[in-house]
Amino acid sequence: MIRKAYLFAMAAVVLTASCSDETTVYSDPKDDISIEENEQDLENSISYDKSGVLDIFDEATLSGKSLSAKGENTEAGDYPLTLVAQVSPPKFRNGGENLTASHVHVDGNYAYVSYNTVEDGLAGAIDIINVSDPTKPRVSSRLYYTNADVNAVKYEDGFVYAVGGVDSEKSVRATSNSYLAKIHASSGKFNLEAGISYAFQEGYNATDVDTQGDKVLVTSGQEGYVTAYDKAELTVQNETAFQDLRSVAVKDNNIAVLDASKGIAILDQDLNVSKEIAIQSDFGNNTKRTLDFVGENIVVAEGSKGAGVYNIASGTLVEYVPILANPNGVDGADVVTNAVATNDEVVLMANGGAGLCLSEKQTNNTDLVGIIELEGSINYVDSKGDYVFAASGKQGLQIIKLNKPNESLAARCASLERYSGSSDLNVNQGDTFEFRGAKRFNNFNVNGQLLLCGSWTVKNGVNLNNNSIFEMNGTFVVARNNKRKNVTVNEGTTFRVEGNLTIYGDLILNDGATLEFIGESSVVNIFGKVTKSETATVSGTFRDVKNKF
Q1: Cα–Cα nearest to 540, from 502, 497, 501, 507
Q2: Are the C-beta atoms of residues 410 and 454 closer than 8 Å to each other?
Q3: Burial 119-151 (b: 16+ CB within 10 A, else e)
Q4: Span 303-357, pLDDT tens digits
Q5: Can you tell me the distance from the alpha carbon of 7 to that of 2, in angstroms, rounded to the nearest whole number?
Q6: I need a labelling partner for 491 at 20 to 30 A (CA). Which of 33, 119, 206, 521 fits?
Q7: Alpha carbons 123 and 22: distance in angstroms, whole number
């Protein structure tokens, strides 16, 4: 069931003279906006079908030159990532059947996702996704636009600021095709009863939004402006015309915009250009491209060139981070860097049809790691804490866990050797090994004794054979939901867990097996079933996410 928002009163109309067009601010929408009230539809938007261990394909693997591509043994890989869940794009009749995820902003316990349509016509949506429990994300609120694309969102202090495009000739209130909407939202819920404030500015389509202090900054594409609005009233404070704006970024007192016709412009607080960095790249027509501050540099999504890194002070090019692969069957025009995000030493590039690329920042350069095993065309990426949020077109939002080793755990295990061996882990009978680190395994067999401290994923099944001991502190994830594998704990074997255990498959506890949880905060999340023999034992305190015990 969809509840239409019929708010007939036009509470406020403010006309503010500006250098572009008159900017009109409205409060209270009519009936082109709706809220989804069917909780079952919201719940059904979350999919765990492909959840689980994610592979990372390096350049050698993609070219068929690596040992793994030839079926031979390889070293265990860094970055043991897992796909937590996917959020399917919303759908509604009369124009909203082909929405694609366009942007995501993460704030606190919520991810705010915008959707637009790439086909003819205008339709969009915004999701608020509760990620307070990363094992169970849920769509807490959903808003539909039947007559407007939503290209970017930003949440701050109880409001969602959304920008996009609308047909001003068909709209009853739009004075231009680029709009800014200020929507009340709190505790993960939209509140349409409080009304929505709008502002419109010149430009083909509003492309990006950010906030700084008491202002909201909006860019509007071709023949548009970067405009600073007063956050309270949405009246214009300042604006500057540009030929083809794609993105705006803020860091402290610095404002940067990306003009596809020239490059980077650094602006002062009055939006006057204080510095320009020329970029000779083809940014494409009407395409998403972003920029962001990273330390003393600015990283720019430059389409087919990949990501360009520029020093802010000198304006010089530091390096290009290229697109790693051109997948078969993907139009070359879709193999472009749309957006870039950073998380500590990790650089993530949304490369459209070439997927989501992970690189690692070094002292003087950026090393490519590989393409993360995801489906869809990656339009935008954001990363906060231990999570990555990828807007992947018609595949919707994909939530990825980085599985960073716990720092306090790393301190306790600091004396252990870092694991740097095979991706096929075999501990023979009579052997005792102890390792720390964060690695990806293909296969995992223990016949002796093993302690792992850190974050680990296993692509295939786990076999803990007779009279063996496996102890883990940190994170241990096995398989994925559409390729389930089992963890088998055999006779006389002890499996000791302190941390987070996730199994996309069954946990099998055979005769005389022992599963022991240490501490008070361990979590176990089993997507298959628990098969426990009468003589097997389970002890300790733990949170059973799916109530399988």
Answers
A1: 497
A2: yes
A3: eeebbbbbbbbbbeeebebbbbbbbbbbbbbbb
A4: 888 899 999 999 999 999 888 765 655 665 667 788 889 888 898 988 888 889 9
A5: 15
A6: 521
A7: 25
